[in-house]
Design a protein that fits this description.
Number of domains: 1
Strand order of the largest sheet: 4-3-5-6-7-8-9-14-13
Number of helices: 12
Number of strands: 15
Shape: globular
CATH architecture: 3-Layer(aba) Sandwich
Structural class: alpha/beta
Order of helices and strands: HHHHEEHEHEHEHEHEEEEEEEEEHHH
Distance between the termini: 38 Å
Largest sheet: 9 strands, mixed
Radius of gyration: 20 Å
Helix content: 25-40%
Bound molecules: zinc ion
Length: about 375
């Protein structure tokens, strides 16, 4: 890809910020987060107090791995509104997932949170080469699930034309893909395969009636082998997008068209760590660890050091696209598998397929999408069976 073909960033100042400036910004925002959590009271304020933190002023970025963590159990414990840090009158929308065991996970957004989310999804779309002239065929589900509305708002923020087709009714999707000739497709990877097969049956193939150039596929784990299959079927560049409703939804991280070898994390808003899931200590860059996010600018549901349970490796350095944002690998497993492998003695839970953006997807297991993750050993591979 030549320089002329590198698509413009949506927020170049932030996305290509020098690492030293980014670290300063993250520290300043981390201090603000600590102050807001302390002011809001609740479980996170209590834990900060127990850790001897009474103000954000003295907190440095180097202190991050000594600050208390949060997890899904906190959201369940605080259901429905107990974890919110603003009055309900400031919350303008809710999203959530059914979670496991029927326990819902509910998240809230202020107007500023929605604007932030839209900008993060606009960044992801721009990284895939979308722009104001683009048509975005958005086949993520619309509803409490964050996928549909997240991409929808991001496309509008970018100035593109979004087609809010949502999931299902595949025959109608084929008609819209043929007639509107969108250049960007957004949906789960398993649905991309289904769409590709339906298009083939309808006689629509890459270079013959389709205008697709790139796709943003997430909410399920998927492999590079599946990337190749999707690209062959649809004639587009298949890119990974990552997010979970607890952090904000899609747009936490996304691959760029230029490299497509890992997902740039929007770490100016979502400070990311990779930790050893057993010890809680940071793992070196390049080593798989559990992803932990601090939502340093979110208002309604700010989370300090939220443990995702997702295993991935971080990698730093300037990308060919010009972004300096840290990259995360594809998610290669779940925390529970890693702990069992290491003999820590936690009971193995039933396979809980990636609920990225806030929804479980059993189809991933049926399609064998989950990578065997050799570094995690044979138990992880068992999940593909
Ligand atoms: Zn890049």
């Amino acid at each position: 890809m030549t320089h002329e073909q590198v698509p413009p960033m949506f927020e170049p100042d932030a996305e290509s910020m020098p690492p030293e400036r980014l670290a300063d910004l993250q520290q300043e925002r981390l201090r603000g987060l600590v102050d807001r959590l302390l002011a809001a009271g609740g479980v996170q304020a209590g834990r900060l107090g127990d850790a001897g933190v009474t103000s954000g002023a003295g907190v440095t970025f180097g202190d991050l791995n000594r600050l208390p963590m949060t997890g899904k159990a906190d959201l369940w414990g605080g259901y429905p509104f107990g974890m919110f840090a603003v009055p309900l009158s400031d919350v303008v929308t809710l999203h959530g997932s059914s979670g496991t065991g029927g326990r819902p996970t509910l998240v809230g957004y202020t107007r500023a949170d929605l604007r932030l989310w839209a900008r993060m999804c606009a960044r992801a779309l721009a990284a895939a080469g979308a722009g104001p002239a683009s048509i975005v065929h958005n086949a993520y589900g619309y509803g409490l699930f964050t996928g549909g509305l997240g991409i929808h708002q991001g496309a509008i923020e970018l100035g593109a034309t979004v087609v809010p087709v949502s999931g299902g009714m595949t025959a109608r999707q084929v008609t819209l893909l043929r007639d509107l000739r969108p250049d960007i497709l957004a949906c789960t990877p398993s649905y991309a395969i289904r769409l590709g097969e339906a298009l083939t049956e309808a006689g629509l193939r890459p270079g013959s009636g389709l205008g697709l150039r790139a796709g943003l596929f997430g909410a399920e784990p998927w492999t590079d082998a599946l990337r190749t299959r999707i690209e062959d079927l649809l004639g587009l560049r298949a890119l990974d997008i990552y997010g979970l409703s607890e952090v904000i939804g899609p747009g936490v991280a996304a691959e760029c068209l230029v490299a497509a070898d890992g997902l740039h994390v929007n770490e100016d808003h979502f400070v990311v760590e990779a930790i050893d899931p057993a010890s809680g200590q940071p793992v070196p860059d390049g080593t798989p660890g559990e992803l932990v996010f601090s939502t340093v600018t979110k208002e309604a549901l700010p989370l300090l050091r939220y443990r995702t349970g997702d295993i991935a490796a971080l990698r730093r350095g300037t990308c060919g696209c010009g972004r300096t944002l840290v990259k995360m690998s594809k998610v290669t497993g779940r925390r529970d598998d890693m702990l069992v492998i290491r003999g820590v003695g936690l009971s193995r839970k039933p396979a809980r397929w990636r609920r990225g953006f806030g929804r479980a997807s059993a189809s991933a297991s049926r399609c064998g999408l989950w990578p065997p993750a050799p570094s995690l050993g044979p138990r992880s591979a068992r999940r593909c069976g």
